[in-house]
Structures are given as structure tokens and as C-alpha cells.
Design brief:
With about 450 residues, the protein is of the alpha+beta class. It has helices at about 5-60, 175-180, 365-375, 375-380, 400-410, 425-435; strands at about 60-75, 80-90, 100-105, 110-115, 125, 155-160, 165-170, 185-190, 200-205, 215-220, 230-235, 240-245, 255, 260-265, 265-275, 285-295, 300-305, 320-325.
């Protein structure tokens, strides 16, 4: 017996209702599954974010405050070659070209507070890895944080994930700003790196000192031969030499009388090659690292082997050349470095150092002058005007009790040794008294 039309309608309605119920159940099931997934994902992300924040909080933090100072510097004294630079400097210290060496350990959380104290826009662009918002690429259209206008401040913050030697420089109107000396070295040290007796940082550059659109002066660390400061080393010292090309030309550093090993700049335990010829090509913006051991006394030439670079204005030798004086070790000369090492903010390192004396005797100026000439002149230069070590005459550090005494007694970043076992408190007070008479 066939069903009537009414029975067909009832069966159809039942079937449709059953399908709708199944769809509602399935939809609710999918909704619950996706909701649970979203909750779990949010929980995981929240834990990851909290974990990342905890990791960041547990990292050693290295902080620096950088400013810009416009000044004139001399590349050569005779004939006079001087240029105007926009130099980077640590706040409270004299700005320099090259800028201060920013030195941290791998894994550190780095914070560089950049205050644009100049009249032009500037940035600090660090080579190496970092978040995009910390790139300092000079393109304001890509983000306000990419360029600091006059008077603005920006904190460049990132984890020093990879060891090595990296350039930093201004990335706004880059050719012009590099030509005005806005560059320096960022060092991320690996504790596993081998120790050396000296580490010397050299920047190779060319300048248009006459302002006629042509390169006329080639320099190593902004000095042109013959007006250079010789590098003084002792026989038997292991030396690490950093070769940074910040110019437009390829340079070929060559050290007379020594064989160096070319190292991987990111892994100093890895020797890339032994270089018996003692010549190495360094391309623009490239940093290379070599090591050698001083073997023989003498005043050795150290120069670029692109001959026009040591023949400025058809005068030879003039330009990209300096002297390396290797002498028998006396055991009394403190380490020499071409670096101007940067340190974290005052107080960042002092907490772990021995206490600084408060009751300081009044120093004797004459004794201080003699002590300085015997102990300090080889690094800090005649009349404390600066040589391999920083200029002390007129330096703000002389009026900063804790900083001066902490630096002298306990050393500084491995580049200046502690003097607490070699000079008495009275002798240091004598040197300070003499330094305070200089301007």
C-alpha cells in the first residue's frame, strides 16, 4: 500500500527536522572544538610571551647612551688637513671618530639610548641581526623609529645573538654622513674566544679634506702619515688586529715583517687561512680579523698596499700608513689599544668591584707629572693629550671621583689593566693632581 501525500509530507518534515538537528549538533561540536583550540593556543602564546619576558629579564643588560657632537678634527698637521665631523660619543665623554667601541657579551640584552643632539636627522644602524623596529634604516616612511630628528631620542634594544665584529653607522643620507665620521665598531664577544695580549681596532678611510670633490687624504683611524701615532708592542705579544674598511675603495692592509692568521670574525677559534704574504683585501663596509705574534724588534711599516693610497697628492710616503714599534718587553708598560672602549652607564659595573677609597691624600703636582711620564705617557700621550688611550687633559672623568678611581684601580673592560697593585693611593693622587692642572 502506497503512502498518501499527507504521509509523504509528514515523513519529509521529520527527515528535515532530523537533518537540522544533526547540523546543529555538528555545528556546536565544531564551535566547541575551535573554541578549545583557541583557548589552548592563547594559553600557549601567553606562556611563551611570559617565558620570553622572563628570559629577557634574566639576561645581563648592557646600556649605553649615545649622542652626536659636531667638531673639527685634524687628519694631518703639515700640510694642514682638517675636516668637520658629526661624531658619535657616549654621553658625558668626548665624541670621537671612529666612535666608541660598543662591547657586549653574546646573549646580552643591549640597550643603546640614542639622543640626537645635532641639528640634522641621524640614526644608529647596527650590522647584524635585530628586530625591524631597531634597524635605524633612515626611512621615516617605514616607521617613525627608523629616523631620529634633531632633539628626538630612541632606544635601540635587541639581544646580541651572534658573536662577532660589526659596524654601526648613521643610515640617513648615508654617503654624506659616513663622510662626516658617523661610524664605529660593535663587538659581541664569545667567552670561548682565545685570549690575546693586545686587541687593536683600525678603521681605513679616505677624505675630501680640501672640499673639491676629490679624495686627497687617506687615513688609518683618522690620521694620515707622517702625522701618526705609532703602535707600540712588545716582543712575543699575541695581537688581534681588527681591519674595518669604512671608505668607498678596496684597501689592502700590509704589515711588514710578520705573518698573520686570518680568522672568522664570528668565530675566532676558526682560522680561515695563514697569510704568509701579509697582505689582505678588505672591501667597503667589510670587517676582517687577523692575529699575529710579534717576533722581532723594529719599527715596522703598516700600510695599505694600493699605492695611490700612500701617495696622497703625489707625495710619498703620505696617507694610509702608520708605524708599529716592537720593543723588548720591560714588564711595566700597560696594554696598548687603538680602541676607545665604551662602558655601560655609571654604576652598571661598579657594583661588583672592590670599594673605592674615600679618604684620598692631597696630591703633589710635580711628583704626579713624573709618575705620569713614567707610567702613563706611552698610552695617554704627551701632556695627556691622547694617544692609544683616551685624552685625559680636561676630561670630565677627572672630576668624577668614583669613576676615576674605579677605572684606575680596577681597570677597564680588559683594555686597561688594574693599577691597584702597581701604584699606591698616594701616587694615584699625585697623578690626578697633575692632570687637573691641564686643559
Amino acid at each position: 500500500m502506497k503512502p498518501t501525500m499527507t504521509e509523504y509530507s509528514l515523513e519529509t518534515r521529520k527527515t528535515k527536522a532530523s537533518r537540522q538537528e544533526r547540523k546543529q549538533v555538528m555545528g556546536m561540536s565544531r564551535f566547541l572544538r575551535w573554541s578549545l583550540f583557541a583557548i589552548v593556543l592563547a594559553f600557549i602564546n601567553g606562556n611563551l610571551a611570559m617565558g620570553e619576558e622572563a628570559i629577557a629579564q634574566n639576561r645581563p643588560v648592557k646600556e649605553f647612551t649615545m649622542v652626536v657632537q659636531e667638531k673639527a678634527i685634524s687628519l694631518m698637521d703639515d700640510p694642514k688637513k682638517a675636516v668637520t665631523v658629526w661624531a658619535y660619543g657616549l654621553e658625558g665623554q668626548e665624541a670621537t671618530v671612529p666612535g666608541p667601541v660598543i662591547r657586549v657579551q653574546v646573549g646580552d640584552l643591549v640597550r643603546v639610548h640614542f639622543k640626537n643632539t645635532h641639528t640634522l636627522p641621524h640614526t644608529i644602524h647596527f650590522h647584524g641581526t635585530h628586530p625591524f623596529v631597531m634597524d635605524g634604516n633612515g626611512q621615516r616612511a617605514l616607521g617613525k623609529e627608523q629616523l631620529q630628528m634633531p632633539g628626538e631620542t630612541h632606544t635601540y634594544e635587541f639581544v646580541a645573538a651572534d658573536p662577532g665584529y660589526f659596524l654601526y653607522h648613521c643610515h640617513f643620507d648615508t654617503p654624506n654622513h659616513l663622510d662626516h665620521g658617523m661610524y664605529g665598531l660593535f663587538v659581541v664577544e664569545d667567552p670561548a674566544w682565545p685570549m690575546v695580549d693586545r686587541e687593536l681596532v683600525t678603521f681605513w678611510d679616505e677624505w675630501d679634506a680640501d672640499g673639491n670633490g676629490e679624495e686627497d687624504t687617506h687615513t688609518i683611524n683618522t690620521r694620515s702619515y707622517p702625522d701618526v701615532n705609532p703602535i707600540r708592542l712588545a716582543v712575543g705579544e699575541r695581537v688581534r688586529l681588527i681591519l674595518a674598511n669604512i671608505g668607498y675603495d678596496v684597501h689592502t692592509p700590509h704589515l711588514h715583517g710578520h705573518v698573520w692568521e686570518v680568522l672568522d670574525p664570528g668565530n675566532l677559534r676558526r682560522v680561515l687561512s695563514t697569510n704568509p704574504n701579509g697582505v689582505l683585501s678588505v672591501a667597503p663596509a667589510e670587517v676582517k680579523v687577523v692575529e699575529f705574534t710579534t717576533s722581532s724588534e723594529g719599527t715596522w711599516l703598516f700600510h695599505c698596499h694600493v699605492l695611490p693610497h700612500v701617495n696622497d697628492q703625489q707625495k710619498y710616503p703620505r696617507g694610509m700608513l702608520t708605524l708599529v714599534k716592537v720593543e723588548e718587553s720591560t714588564g711595566t708598560r700597560p696594554p696598548v689599544s687603538l680602541e676607545k672602549p665604551a662602558t655601560p652607564k655609571p654604576g652598571d659595573q661598579v657594583a661588583s668591584l672592590p670599594p673605592i677609597p674615600k679618604d684620598i691624600p692631597v696630591g703633589n703636582v710635580d711628583r704626579g707629572r713624573d709618575l705620569f711620564n713614567g707610567k702613563c705617557k706611552s698610552c695617554h700621550g704627551r701632556l695627556a693629550a691622547g694617544d692609544y688611550g683616551p685624552k685625559l687633559a680636561g676630561s670630565p672623568i677627572l672630576n668624577d671621583h668614583d669613576r676615576f678611581w674605579g677605572t684606575v684601580l680596577n681597570g677597564r673592560g680588559g683594555n686597561m689593566p688594574p693599577w691597584k697593585d702597581q701604584l699606591s693611593t698616594g701616587q694615584i693622587a699625585d697623578i690626578l693632581a697633575w692632570l687637573q692642572t691641564l686643559r
